[in-house]
Amino acid sequence: MTSGGQRSAFEDGAPRGHTSPGRGRRLPEPGARSASKRTSIFAALVLLLSTGAGFALSITDETAGSQPLVLLLWLTAYAVGGALLIDTVVRLRRRPNVPPWLLLFIILAATSALWSEAPSVTLRRSFALAGTTLVGLAIADRLRPVEVLETVRRVVLLIAVASLLLYLLRDPRALDDVHATLRGVVISKNTLGRVVAVGLISTACLAYLDRRRWRVHLASAVPMAIALALTDSAGGLLLSIIGLSLIASLAIWRSRRDRLALCTVVAAGLGFGILAFPNGISAEDVTQVSGRDTTLTGRTEIWDESLLAARERPLSGYGYGAFWGLGGGGVEAEAAGRIRARLAVPVANAHSGFLDVTLDLGLPGAILAGLVILATLQRGVRDGREGWVDGTLLRAVVVGILLVSTATESGLLQENGFLTVLLVVAAAVRADPTGPRGSSTPPAAIVGAGSRSSRPVLSRSG
Hints:
Blueprint: E1 6-8, E2 18-19, E3 26-27, H1 32-51, H2 68-90, H3 100-111, H4 119-142, H5 145-168, H6 189-209, H7 214-231, H8 234-254, H9 256-276, H10 283-289, H11 299-312, H12 334-343, H13 353-386, H14 389-405, H15 418-428, H16 443-447, E4 459-461
Antiparallel strand pairs: 1-4, 2-3
Helix pairs in contact: 1-4, 1-5, 2-4, 3-13, 4-15, 5-6, 5-7, 5-14, 6-7, 6-8, 6-14, 8-9, 8-14, 11-12, 11-13, 13-14, 13-15, 14-15
């Protein structure tokens, strides 16, 4: 029993595993730790592949998806993910958790080849989406939420350090081709900004869950923060500020004695805003502070044109992945060619996740995507009510990142995408894949033996 009459997750019964003598604590099954380590390595490799890290140094955005080596690596990842799921069913006799709304979305994406503007593109990309989902389900089936966050932290740290080293070596490939700011080892500055923001938020979650290792997490956050500053990515900076603020607010709110302080700070901030901006804040004020214009670097024009195209096929869309096709000069919808001609810009996507889904699959696709996100958030709320903060944090963080990021960028349920892998994992991950439903292992048990003075954050009312 923990202090306050609460019971640690290790004191719950379990249908599998074994218990230590006299204490009733559930210990990991033999070989479970090594299996978890192997899955973590697989997850890290998949996340690296999904960011395009390294490959971006020699390929362009238009040809990234058609590189033979990239395709071979993804096919290998699909095969490994499928094999892990088969092993779960056959050997472990456990049914993988498959979110129903996500399954319906994949079925709709594959079916859209029947009316697609580019059937071959739709078939190929819907197959890749199904493979990406297999990979995410396999990771979610074998890793705990805190292990997922730790894997994300390590992957992003590696990307940030590699990008900074490339920058310090004055390699011209380290700079974005358009904005001349840091893009590092990925395809663009916005991609790096978004990935680093995810890493910073994951690191903050780990610092909150395992406060004994806050120095390690702070040290790993430093290169991420430097890389984010060098990207000059407004989206990445905004994502980091919102995510870190929410985690800090949660940490303060869970401490009852600090709730008054939090309410005081919020009230003071609102009061300052009212006094400083008595006439309100306009769009020009916000964009001037961020150094952008009111069109968000031309995004609003793309949105207007894309909405007109979406209204032409509101129920069916143009086929999954078929509207923008393979980019300028490739297979694409006729409406996409008109948008590129009107704007005189080689537009690659709508710079909006939900708008891209609507263009591909119409309103039914957008509704299904929304239900996937809503169901993930609902599971996070349920985890919080049961007292398992790791599951709540992972699901809430991924949903928040996805909503903020895809407001001005693409990537919502996109095949082989970094955010897609994270969304599938967050939607399907169990609180503890080796124990009863609703239990979870405290971070202290994962990172090492806990001391008497360090009480695990994750506990359940007894």
